[in-house]
Amino acid sequence: MAPPIVSATIQTAIISAISNILAQAITAHQTGTPLIIDPIPVFQYALFSLLSTPPNFLWQDFLESTFPAYGPSASAAPAPAAGSKDAKGAAPAAAEARPRLNKRNTVVKTLLDQTVGMAANTVLFSLFMHGIRQGMAHHYAAREAAGDGDARFGGLGLGFLLGSDAVRYRDVAWASVWAKAKGEFWDLAKAGWRFWPLVSLVNYVFVTSVEARSLVGALAGLGWGIYLCLVTGQ
């Protein structure tokens, strides 16, 4: 069985690819044009998820280990010694002493996730997307030169994914990429703050394991990914 971090990464990459395909379908419906899937942005979003999910998984694991969501009940008492006269009532009392939600830790985790985590993810997303789009722009130029303006899976095959020329790093103007990332940071942050704090709270309060939280976050990211694809034109 694959480690949880591997399963979470694969799940998130698949969901990211689906979100981009759905965004392309929505755009085609809105513009009244036939749906022809462009594999390049699908690849870009899936690749970003493959790279960003492991550090995010470790970040959530760090938050949970540092600020546990649940702790022993405040009313819990030490277990009586075996054979004592209080031993008979120990089992029912232990059953009632269920873990309690640590509200302080939950608030701290949410604040850290929506400030430090949000800032890092937003900047890295913008840098990656603007950088890889410039690095893969030659695929569109080659397709137009060949007279194939449509973006079809069959037209490109897997060559552009597997070839050494898939991404031309020399074509990336990093000063331009950084300027674009700075320019859109607050707009993306404000949009995220309308959505992700609620997801974080639900995760921290109702979901106990980091693996399950990663899945919930990935499913919530399906809608967020569609939004990002639409607002960034990809």
UniProtKB/TrEMBL annotation:
<dbReference type="Pfam" id="PF04117">
    <property type="entry name" value="Mpv17_PMP22"/>
</dbReference>
<protein>
    <recommendedName>
        <fullName>Mpv17/PMP22 family protein</fullName>
    </recommendedName>
</protein>
<keyword id="KW-1133">Transmembrane helix</keyword>
<keyword id="KW-0472">Membrane</keyword>
<dbReference type="InterPro" id="IPR007248">
    <property type="entry name" value="Mpv17_PMP22"/>
</dbReference>
<comment type="similarity">
    <text>Belongs to the peroxisomal membrane protein PXMP2/4 family.</text>
</comment>
<dbReference type="GO" id="GO:0005778">
    <property type="term" value="C:peroxisomal membrane"/>
</dbReference>
<keyword id="KW-0812">Transmembrane</keyword>
